[in-house]
Amino acid sequence: xxxxKKELRAQYKNLRRGFSTExxxxxxxxxxNNLIVLSIWDKTYFHVFLPIEEQKxxxxxxxxHLLSGRDKEIVISKSDFETREMxxxxxxxxTKIKKNEYNIPEPVNGLPVPVDVIEVVFVPLLxxxxxxxxxxxxxxxxxxxxAGCKPETIKIGLSVFEAVNQIDDxxxxxVKLDYCVTPLRTYTF
Length: 189
Prior knowledge:
By secondary structure, this protein is of the alpha/beta class. The chain has one domain: NagB/RpiA/CoA transferase-like (Rossmann fold), CATH 3.40.50. It contains four helices and twelve strands; from the N terminus they run ααβαββββββββαβββ. The strands form three sheets. Strands 6-3-2-1-7-10-11-12 form an eight-stranded mixed beta sheet, with helices on both faces. Strands 4-5 form a two-stranded antiparallel ribbon. The chain has a two-stranded antiparallel ribbon with strand order 8-9. The longest helix is centred in the N-terminal third of the chain and has 15 residues, at 21-35. The two termini are 23 Å apart. The mean pLDDT is 94. Keywords: ATP-binding, Ligase, Magnesium, Metal-binding, Nucleotide-binding. Substrate binds at residues 52, 57. This is 5-formyltetrahydrofolate cyclo-ligase. It catalyses: (6S)-5-formyl-5,6,7,8-tetrahydrofolate + ATP = (6R)-5,10-methenyltetrahydrofolate + ADP + phosphate.
């Protein structure tokens, strides 16, 4: 069983390719339903990733419905691949979404949101371990973004897979999750 980021990243990308869109949607709905019991609903500003469908990421449409049904402020991001920084925007009825060259759906325009008002972040990932370490695509966007959040910001990974025992090559700069929600359970770190 691989335990380093490079091997785990390759393994879990490959495993995800085996899912149909229906599989991902079913798992994503269960994940969204599992979020309901977390004690996060007193917060106002929720950052949500918009899934890269081609990468079979968790479909956050169900999370968006949950948030809008509870009148939460929804924040989405745009990625700058030169600086590896993300800028954040309020998702409104007027927000135009367009896929970038990496098939990441992003806001074209919108009201900027400072990182320090974001209270909850739903984090995309490929794999995670029982200690709350996560593996993304390796570009560092989320580590940089999460490091800039307030310490009390709640970081919730969303995964179609369960935790691996350990990721060996964790760096000091890697930001740990507070929770990870899967179709089968919620991990608390």
